[in-house]
Amino acid sequence: MKIAIATDHNGVNEKKELINRLNEYEFIDLSQDNTPTDDYPDFAFRVCKSIINKEADLGILMCGTGIGMSIAANKVKGIRCAHCSNVSQAHLAREHNNANIIALSYKQDLNELETMIKEFLNTEPSKEERHQRRVNKIISYEEGTYNEL
Questions:
Q1: Residue 27 backbone class (left: φ over 0; alpha: ψ -120 to 50; beta: rest)
Q2: Residue 149 falls within a domain, yes or no?
């Protein structure tokens, strides 16, 4: 499994440490060129592009809160990015929502971040009809074919 990861200037050291800790995964680091004035959408879009182009299977985004990254990522067709703050949210984002990117705050404890990421990466999307139906509605809306509004 290939994992695309990026952060803005706020989480560079944390990103590097997480890549070292999670060495059982293959990472594509898409924010090796951070500067003090970089903008989080640029890095969010890089990770999204890698998933859309099938260069990576899943993605991890970090910034000060994780919120900006998730907002930017969710503007990209085909991306379901979940901003998560705990292990339960990371699990359910994958299981119920088939999220393909997790957005995190670099300010959380590194052990918590590591646990959330492992949970996200190791959880399979649900095969239950109700979860698939809901994700399919999101996909239909993106494609302009959702007629329920």
A1: beta
A2: no
pLDDT tens by residue, 26-60: 999 999 999 999 999 999 999 999 999 999 999 99
**CA 106 – CA 15 distance, rounded (Å):** 8
- List residues with catalytic annotation: 63, 96
Instruction: Specify the pLDDT at position 148.
Output: 78
The alpha carbons of the chain give a radius of gyration, in whole angstroms, of 15
Cβ neighbors of 122 (< 8 A, separation 6 or more) are none
How would you class 23 by CB atoms within 10 Å of its CB: exposed for 0-12, middle for 13-18, buried for 19 or more?
Answer: exposed
Give me the CATH number covering residue 32.
3.40.1400.10
- What predicted TM-score, i.e. pTM, was given to this entire model? 0.96
| Domain around 112 | 2-143
pLDDT of amino acid 133? 95
Q: Is residue 148 included in any domain, yes or no?
A: no
Domain count, the chain: 1
**Which residue positions in the chain have pLDDT lower than 50?**
none
Asked whether the beta carbons of 77 and 142 are under 8 A apart, the reply is yes
